[in-house]
Amino acid sequence: MMNIITVILIASFCEIITVTNVNLDSNFNNNEREGNFNENLMNQSLDRLKMIARVTNGIYLQKRIMEGIIPTDNLISELLGSLEIDMLEEINVEEIEEIFEALETIQTFANSTSESVNVTSAENTSDSSELIRKVLEFLENPKLLNKSSFLHLRLLIIQLINPRATKPIVHTFGFPNGYQDLIMLSKDFEDSWLQAIVRTKSLEFSIKPLIGLGVVIKNISEQLSFTDEQKNMVFEVYQDLKNLVAKKMELTICNFTEISSESACFPAQNLVIQDYGLMIKGLKRFKEAQSGLKSLNTSIERMKLNKNLETEALKHFSDSLRHSEILGYAVQGVISMRLAIQKEAEFQKIIPKLSIITAQLIGNLSREDQENLEELAKMGPHLEAMYSTLNTWKFSSFFKDNSTNLLNYSRIFENAQLVTGIGLNFSNIAISLDNLIAGVGDEEVREKLKDIETVVDEMNEIGLNFSRYSKTFKEANGTMQALNVFFVDYDTKIYDPIIAKERNKDYTAMYTLIGVGAAIFVIVFFLGLLYLWRKDKEIENFGESENGKTKKTISRKSGSNSEETLLTGKTFTSSSSTY
């Protein structure tokens, strides 16, 4: 019976959706006729879509974590910015500290020694010789450069510099900013519009454990944060180690007086770079992050056992991975379009400057650089075409609407399919442009090329190849409809068992009251009978008492008359004869 009611409700709901869509056209047309673009409306609509994308992805993650389908390390890796968790856990901090301390010893000795000591006679008893012996023992280590911990640290730093750029996203499509977006879910559920969409607070409760993970991952990320100085130090130390190993043989036949000079046996000036103690201090925080990862793994394992009515109802959202991917990418696409609109004035300014590139192409550039720069020089018409379609999109897609029907927002994605982007590889173009600038002597031309380079970097960061989102734009309508149905269905799945439970409570209470009432009635009935019996007894006893009193009175009167007769000598008969 319940299934029939649910089907009827969904059918009615879809009918309402159809009617609403018919009425949407007038809203869009009115917006176009007004010709006034309201940026606040665009921001409101896109921010709402970001919320829905986060909620959808959150449902998928919570559901799959409980089922044990998502590998824990993969999830943490994506939320941390695609860091390789296995590599991070395997880093031996003590091993790295040993390298830095050894280098610090070399640096200290190179800066302080004033005596000429021959390393080949390292058996000398002087302090300098002892230091030299330690340095040589360090350099004699055949695995110096291949120590996995240091290599892993270097790779980790590279990943920290380019977050989410080294590995494809598999699970967190709705969280492009990793754990920061995950934490945003708690604020999303405070939004009145979203509350009306999801219909029940139970959904927030069901993914609360997932939101908690975001806070823990945030702390780990902060512990893994290295300053620019520390990051640079890792790369410089790596180069130092290569130089030291390369010069190891020469080091054994030279004296340490030369170390501080430019013609040293190895480039000591490269060693005198930073305070190694600063790096060791950063590594101690790194240890805390490793400890935090272990606790995080334990928390995720516990989530698999955290099953209740609210979390079990999430299973009814079928194809949650596909919907998370569709909506996650589609929203990223329209957010990129918004960023491009906001940068229009800045981007359009470089069009007149593009001709400078063509004039500078004569030089010793590689064929790849030549081709990249030629494509950049021809970008002007493509940029203008892109902004023409972006303007059409922004005027036709946003309107005042607080509707809780997600299909009302599908038009944003439908119109986005008509936007023409720019399919250039701006990352490669930026490298080629940098090579071009390096060979230009004219300072004025260099400055103009640097202005173009700044814009190219921004274009690369935003991503103007909107055609890559076209498939998800097309499929977004189906995802919005699936979400509409799920939120209604989820509310029903939560509400019905609660009602049934309350009914059972009511029935139990009712039967209890009836039982208590019956018991009270029986007690009162028997008390009444007891009362009547006692009353009857009292009356009976009272009657017997009165009879006794009457008999005593008569007896006393009889006795009195007898006494009187004896005194007067008269009898009743004699007295009667007198009359």
Automatic annotation (TrEMBL):
Domain of unknown function WSN domain mapped to chain residues: 40-106
Organism: Caenorhabditis nigoni
Keywords per UniProt: Membrane, Signal, Transmembrane, Transmembrane helix
PANTHER family, alphabetized: DOMAIN OF UNKNOWN FUNCTION WSN DOMAIN-CONTAINING PROTEIN-RELATED, PROTEIN-TYROSINE-PHOSPHATASE
Keyword NADP: no
Protein name stated in the entry: Domain of unknown function WSN domain-containing protein
Polar residues composition-biased segments: 556-579
Signal peptide start and end residues: 1-19
Gene: Cnig_chr_V.g22047
Lineage top rank: taxon: Eukaryota
Region described as Disordered: spans on this chain: 545-579
Pfam families linked: WSN
Residue ranges crossing the lipid bilayer per the database entry: 509-533
